[in-house]
Amino acid sequence: MKIIVNQKLLVFDGEINLEDLLLELSVSKKYMAIEVNEIIIPKSEYARYLLKENDIVEVINAVGGG
Amino acid sequence: MNKFIINNKTYNSRLIVGTGKYKDFKETKLAVEASGAEMVTVAIRRMNLGQKQDSPNLLEFIDPEKYTILPNTAGCYTAADAIRTCNIAVEILNGEKLVKLEVLGDEKTLYPNIVETLKAAEILVKDDFKVMVYTTDDPLVAKELENIGCVSVMPLASPIGSGLGLQNKYNILSIVENANVPIIVDAGVGTASDASIIMELGCDGILMNTAIACAKNPILMASAMRKAVEAGYEAFSAGRIPKKRYASASSPIEDNICNDE
Q: Would A66 be classed as within a structural domain?
């Protein structure tokens, strides 16, 4: 299954949910957000949110800024 | 002296600082500490998912339990993009709805696009966001943003990152005089005296980033800005003397042994 995560193509053997995607990417759930196809997915739904082929995922956080 | 209250929280420091353009997060942390600021701005961006595992997160250095984190919409050029960014910020910050709205017009000036700013402010306020809004130094626009329900109006002193200091003193004065929400001058400060001049007008606070982060010694400049903001506000509160064209002696005129009449 192919998905786009932060503008990069990632390929997985089978289905993957957001919780497992974050594990795969070594990303902590603290102070971050995820959009799938421009819709924010609440953290409480990560474990049951299954990604679909060609989904566009954005993993977003706070960075330095004025 | 008046208290500095934003969104029902009282702050001791009237200086709000940005976290951009620093060498690393350690320097950011030290400069924020030296500035005495209790509210800091952050930007919302894609996470860097590079090769490096467990790369540090800004909010591990600037603890949201200790500081009020003010996410901005920097880099947004439409109301829709700014609103999208604000909604993401709420998710990142676990439900906090205080945001700095900035909708930019063009890359050269980074001037606010007022049409889009007004549009975004209306929608965000209706959606219960607490909006601190970056705007031009136009007094009518500032009042309109207050009427929409923004919790603070933040006119520029001069373009973002320019270091030109306050360019339109009388407009800022008009904005301050007409305001019922805190007026925080955002952008354009170059050095400490710029900050004092702004505070001496009666502004409630100043937001700055580049002047500190890009100084040769950011931590020392952060300390200077802390003092300048405090000094300017105290001088405003104390009430300055009127300007006169000629001298007025500080020592008594009478009983001068060298000048008996």
A: no
B87 touches chain A (CB under 8 A): yes
Residues of A with CB under 8 A from a CB of B: 5-8, 25-28, 30-33, 35, 38, 40, 42-43, 58-66
Give the number of other CB atoms < 10 A from CB of residue B86.
25
Distance from CA of A28 to the nearest CA of B (A): 8
Residue A48 lies in a domain: yes
**Alpha helices per DSSP H over B16-152:** 25-35, 58-61, 79-92, 114-126, 139-148
- What's the average model confidence in pLDDT over A29-44? 96
Point out the catalytic residue in the list B21, B100, B143, B169. B100
pLDDT block averages, 10 residues each, chain B of length 261: 92 98 96 98 93 74 96 97 98 96 95 98 98 98 98 97 96 97 97 98 98 98 98 97 94 86 61
Give me the CATH number covering residue A36.
3.10.20.30
Active site residue B100: yes
Give the helix, strand, coil percentages of chain A, each rounded to 5: 20, 40, 40
Torsion sign across C-alpha atoms B180, B156, B15, B116: positive
Please answer yes or no on whether A40 and B93 come within 8 Å at the CB atom. no
Taking CB atoms and an 8 Å cut-off, how many pairs form between chains A and B?
Answer: 103
